[in-house]
Amino acid sequence: MLVELKDLTKTYTGRDGNVRAVDGISLQVDSGQFLSLQGPSGCGKSTLLLMSGGLLAPESGTVEVGGENPYAMNPDARSAFRARHIGFVFQQFHLVPYLTVLENVLAPSIATGGRGIDGMDRARELVAQFGLEHRGGHVPGELSSGERQRTALARALFNRPNLLLADEPTGNLDYENSQIVLKYLREFVTDGGAVLLVTHDPVAAEKADRTIQLHDGRINES
Q: Is the pLDDT of residue 109 over 90?
């Protein structure tokens, strides 16, 4: 079992009172599995994704990734754990605007001490794998949306994680580029990784092995 979530809850306080974004969710994700989370805006999908990735502590319940609870670690250890085991891909790409494609892909090496010849070789390998050799010296502002998302995917894979967490990765892409991104996610799963995908896109959700429907912080598996 790669990811195990047990009885997770998370409550936010707003002007109109408390909102239970995640309400007692339990979920398991195995290696070699592609799982999608769907549901209306505000149903808790992104909150659940962030908790699964060690970025947002649950109010109650437990998170285990590879048998370890990232929230039982101190902040530095948790950050290093994320860097080693989890890759993140977001709708807005979150690339560093003043770094080139090659430098953005290399950036995760800072968290694991992997800079140097080996790190650069890995970054170049990924740039080539994602068809970005001709863009390696360009900054994000000079790239198309599809090229930015491919750069973000390459960066997410730099440290060879076993889990990818993707939040609307096709949200800013046309159909052709969406299919390219989904193809890479499927290849990652085929190679033994696991993908947890948040999406409103039914075409993207169809690529998953399982679909979890969320409503008012609860799950309904289909």
A: no
Tokens of 204: 């993207």
Which residue from 83, 65, 36, 31 is spatially nearest to 191, judged by alpha carbons? 31
Structural domain spans, the chain: 29-58+67-221
Residue 197, SS3 per DSSP: strand
Q: Is 43 helix (H, G, I), strand (E, B) or coil?
A: coil
Q: Does domain 29-58+67-221 have CATH number 3.40.190.10?
A: no
162 three-class SS = coil
Tens-place pLDDT, residues 162-213: 999 999 999 999 999 999 999 999 999 999 999 999 999 888 999 999 999 9
Q: What is the pTM of this model?
A: 0.91
The span from the CA of 115 to the CA of 104, in Å, is 13
Tokens standing for 61? 């319940």
**CA quadruple 32, 180, 165, 12: dihedral positive or negative?**
negative
pLDDT digits (tens, 9 = 90+) for 121-161: 999 999 999 999 999 999 999 999 999 999 999 999 999 99
- Phi, psi (deg, nearest 5) at residue 125: -60, -45
